[in-house]
């Protein structure tokens, strides 16, 4: 009895019907063998696989409106849900400080431009005459200083001679007292100091004369290229400052960059706007996008410009025309899927951001059947399957597309279609026209 149980279970398994269940395929059926027929295992193909991809709808344009300048919001012209056109004023920031900055920059620029123009035109006759008078005055002062030097030198020479005579007489005991020598020495020191002072005054007068002459000559020949370049650079610098001040004033008026609808308002009148901080969210839903993540086994079939049909569960019975707008060449992080975006017209406003949409590729990519890899025969660089047609094996060429490690997709045609029986694990005994019986 124990021996019977030992073999009964495997025998029962061998006689059982073989079942293979694909993701969207059919099942293997079993039939009684007939004499002379080759025993095979078959699988019934399921319904065609629609090339459908699920994704989420997002706005085609989603603009975060920010301020470029800091200031108190003086006026807010929109609310959430407001429809706006490009260029409409959304908000106004107080402009008092910016207006003052513009006026200051304008004044500084005008002064610098005037100085440059005057320098380019050269000195006027009145200025030349004034500089000539200054040269004449400096010349007179220099001549007077020179005369003073001559007088001081004569006095110094006399004091030197007197001192030398007194010193010689004193040293030879010729009746010159110490008091006489001290007086002569003091007169010598005074004369020497007066002479040196006169020489210093002469040099100062000479420098003034040279300076006056230089100014006169510069006025006559005009400014140098370097001077003009420096003045022009100052004008350019102040012009840039004025442009910046005008830009800040202009940026205090915040306008709509696109047509759209205000989706979110993050600030109110009286609050302080900060540069770069979002004030409003503006979306354009006239056209929307569907974001998809496509498996690496399918990405080769997804091409930019391919037309697609889009359906939304919340809108039964409606199909929207779309087009693949973007296929990323880089997969998502930590997955084998690739970002894909589909553009869909939404002028009727039926599609909302956040809706889940089903994207179906065009007809050339639909009506695919799932077939187990164990049914594929490779011969002469082509792929085939055996179809069981009324217990007769027929070899049919197919074109496959990878699904996973066990299954492939094949395109349905007049020779291979849904509900048809194909042979899995075909043996070498099979050939075109072989009589078969499903095991």
From TrEMBL:
Keywords linked to the UniProt accession: Coiled coil
Ranges for domain CusB-like beta-barrel: 290-364
Gene3D superfamilies: 2.40.30.170, 2.40.420.20, 2.40.50.100, Helix hairpin bin
Residues in Multidrug resistance protein MdtA-like barrel-sandwich hybrid domain copies: 63-279
YknX-like C-terminal permuted SH3-like domain: residues covered: 369-437
Coiled coil: 188-248
Family note: Belongs to the membrane fusion protein (MFP) (TC 8.A.1) family.
UniProt name for this protein: Efflux RND transporter periplasmic adaptor subunit
